[in-house]
Amino acid sequence: MVLPVFGIRHLRPLASPSASTSRSISVPGSASASASVSSSVLKAATFVVSDAAATVVAPPPKASAMLHGHCHVEHSLYHGFSIRSFRHPPSPHRPLQARGKKTTTTIKLSDLPQGLIQPKAASPLPTSSSVSSPHDESTETSPLPLPPLPQDPPAYPTVLLQARQNMLKFDNCVLLTRVGGFYELYFEHAEEYGPLLNIKVANKKTNAGLVPMAGFPFFQLDRFLKILVQDLGRHVAIAEEYPNSPTAKVRSGGLMHDRRVARIITPGTLIDENFMDPYANNYVMAIHIEPGIKATNTVTDVKTVIGRVAGSEGGLAGHGPESAHPSPSVVGIGVGRGAGQSQGLQDAVSLGLAWLDLSTGYFCTQEANLASLPTILSRLCPRELLLDQALQSCPDNGLSDLLAEDRHIISYAPRPHDSSLFHPENWTPMLECALAKHEASAFSPAEVHAAGFLLSYVKDRLQGMSMKLQPPLRNKDMQVMAVDKNSMRALEIKQTIRDGVFRGSLLHAIRRTVTKSGARLLNEWLSAPSTSLELITSRQDLVARFIDDINLSDSLILLLRRSYDSQRLVQKFTLGRGDADDLLDLASTIDATRDVVNLLKKANFASRKLEHHCLTSLISRISLTHPLRLSQRIRDAIDEEGIVLQHDVQDSEASQMLALAEIVVSNEGSQDDAASLPKGKRKRPVSIRDYYAEENGAWVMRPAASPNLAKLHTDLATLTEEKAALNETLRQRFNAPSLSLKWTPGLGHIAHTKGKDARNLTDVQALSSSRSTRSFHISEWTLLGQRMDQVRAQIRAEEQAVFYSLRELVVKNLVKLRRNAAVLDELDITTSFAKLAREQNLVRPVLNNTTSHTIIGGRHPTVEGGLYEQGRSFVRNDCLVGSPTDGRVWLITGPNMAGKSTFLRQNALITILAQIGCYVPASYAELGIVDAIFSRVGSADNLYRDQSTFMVEMLETAAILKQATPRSFVIMDEIGRGTTPEDGTAVAFACLHHLATVNQCRTLFATHFHSVADLAHEEGLCSADVGVVQTYCTNVVEDREGGFFYNHKLQRGINRQSHALKVARLAGLPDRAIEVAKRALKQDSFI
């Protein structure tokens, strides 16, 4: 082998030699005169290489040359490699060098090293025991393998490259890419979600190989978004087409469009999608864990941690002390068998909550703890929960378990790097108006961090779209009744327990609203009834006014039907969305608001009594001066007939896409694919460009919308007249009466003839022809047509400018429009309450600040409706609880199916209805304001958290005993039934005693353990007149023939017979089983 030559400075490749040309290499030599090829050190100075061998000529330098390590190079080389030795500049202290005798050495060319130079591994450091020559071959190490050469990416088409880049950038989203009239999925997204969407997955041929793809027509976007976002809970990134500039076209190889993600759609950030629930808010909520709380878990078998993964040296992984964002604290939260012992820990975990509805701009914050979180979530029903991404690395944290139990959709996001949003004064660009200093300072640090986290997340989802939210409200400042999660479910306020459906719930029974926004507000009122006596009274006054004046109420309802969901309409414009139809809907709502105000003023003035302050306050809250100008501006600018024509064009485009989809399905799809296509009447497909190319184009704005637009329409009319004149001139020139001037997408501006005129024009060069038609170009018409197209393009640009100006006016009137919409929503609810009161014979409850309930002739609002449909009547019952004479606690006994649970629920529901301002189903009602309603009704286990039925019952009971106040209203049904009668009796009495003596709240307590009444009497809680606990019961009426019926009437006393066998017989138990049960009851051991 050839060893490296020392002192080489340059290795310069020259031109390759021919077969007969020799190559010379000049190198410094050694002290030896010559050496063989097999020697360990090559002493050659000059190589002369021929085809067969190489001749080495080396001048031996003197010792001084070797001493200083340099030599003089004399031979100039023209081929091969030139190797120059490094020479120091001349020095007077160095002796001059002399040339020695030349020697030659011959080697074979095959002995020279070939191929790439392999890198060598670092040799180990020499030791004193083993020192070798630097040229000893035995000390050389084996060469290391070369790194692989870089590979070029697959040559995908530009559209696929754009899609791949977007998929990598938004890796947690499903990417839908707009390509012409379709939205398409590519690569692994097509393979994964194509079957879920029930669309065919095909393979697109590219130079890089087959690429999976799936797609659907653009007009079916909402349908598939509903599946992806609502049903599957995915995040969807929408990549839209943006026209490329001329330079961008060149850069992209002639691509007409660039495809960028315009918006990320998540379950909680919907804006105006058609699949949104119009009758409920669409909240996204951020949860921030307040730092600084340390606790350890004392519960065995369960250990969960909330917080970031601990890093080295006690720090947080990936977060040093310089981090600007506080990290969630490490807290042990018990779940499962020992969850009851960790209630104190849950109370200690401080949370900051912030939620908003992007479709309406509603924004709110609240401080809470882990124990109260389920109640808040059941009240708000957020569509999406936002947590710190650091929590995702702790799958066993208690917060995630708590949220997963109710199947909430959870999104994890990193904390924003920009900490500016953690200061309320920096929220101003995203709010409709700036916060005052005292308002900004009122937010707690936990609320500020939750709100900043939420705003950053929503801002990122919108991808640059602006938004104007309402100023955030602090829920702490709102006076509302607390309805916990279990009560919301047990009382069936929004959905039934059995089926989880809307029909049969309290909301279904009372909703008579005619607007979508009014229905959403009613949902909010019902979830959080007010505790403000003044507010409740003002709502009742409005209801009473509309009950007294039926004509006024009906007229208002008709006007409200003419209005639209202006809360969501206005928000669309603040987000840069909306179209001309939305502007017209907004104008109709403003006009309806004006008519509502006039009607209220007229009704207020016509009344001979004193002015109704409730109507006066409503009128004063409505501002119409600027909104009416906006409405008139919209009416003057938008051409409604043009809107109708544009809709026809859009329907035609949709028909074209649907027809194309049907062709694809018929060729490649299955019957299921064909069934998935929308059905309907097919319109004649007409191209949008065909419409826009004609002089009667679908103009959206009136010519008078702007001076420039009027001028452009005048120019277009002039050009249209020139076209008619040119058409007549050409008919005379070619003697062709059928000649017409047209524009087609494929041929452009053409003259078209038909019939005998087409056959006579044989001397004209035709662009297309048939037996009866002929089309050809005429320069005059081409120039005129181009001028007309240019004017039409200018008209559309000006229309867009007018539309933007109208949208800007809407945003400027944002605050007034939202306030007006809030008044219309309240009118919608109060008129619906008046209508409901007339239909169902409801009465106005009297509310006060006492702690007593007086309900005479109360009825269950939902059960009564079900019985009415069956032709049956409801048995009314009285409830007088809370006063010293009537007792704070009613202990109710009685047989199964006799109406105990119905009585408990109906009084809780009457309380809720009274505090939202609605009339109640009773003959008379006088209620003290209730701050919270608690219920322990029904039975269910929780297998997810390893909790038995009795454990669930005890957990709920413990929460009630800890949280109820003297102003609370509690209903408890059959406490202790999940264990032995002895233990159940003890537990039931202990709860009754605690509620009566410690909580001292209004309580309805139903039980089958009759001995509880005896224990209460022994403790002195029961007395005939003034006892804290009063006993009531229901009974069964039997006839002489063995028949019976339930009278459902509540009466004083204790019923020690449950009549369970009668219920068993009604349920259809076999007679033999009933007889066995009777024999067992007769035995003393079973009594």
UniProtKB/TrEMBL annotation:
Keywords: ATP-binding, DNA damage, DNA repair, DNA-binding, Nucleotide-binding. One of its GO terms (cellular component) is mitochondrion. One of its GO terms (molecular function) is ATP-dependent DNA damage sensor activity. Residues 144-153 have a biased composition (Pro residues). Residues 123-133 have a biased composition (Low complexity). The keyword Acyltransferase does not apply. GO terms for biological process: mismatch repair; mitochondrial DNA repair. Pfam families: MutS_I, MutS_II, MutS_III, MutS_V. PROSITE patterns: DNA_MISMATCH_REPAIR_2. Residues 109-153 are annotated as: Disordered. Residues 968-984 form the DNA mismatch repair proteins mutS family domain. Belongs to the DNA mismatch repair MutS family. This is Related to MUTS protein homolog 1.
